[in-house]
Sequence to fold (90 residues):
Amino acid sequence: MTALQHPDAIRHFQSLCDACQELAHRFHTPAELRLYADGYLHALRRTAVLDPLSQRRLEELIDRWIQDPSSFVGPDGDPRALFEPNAGRY
Fold:
């Protein structure tokens, strides 16, 4: 497992996770979250804020985090509640 060591990489990971959680709560799809994360990571790459190793580790961690269904679980424990506006409602 690749761990983030650089304090700025950790802050960017937290910021990106928070933003994706907010987007998920507004019913954005996993594909849309992926696009958002790709844009965020691309901007970091272009500005060279992080050294290449920290950038690569951050990208790998974000890839795993977005693909993990447990990263996005609704308040009732059902991830569908985040991505489907009417899931779990009667």
Summary: The chain has a mean pLDDT of 82. Helices lie at 7-25, 30-47, 52-67, 80-83. The first helix runs from residue 7 to 25.
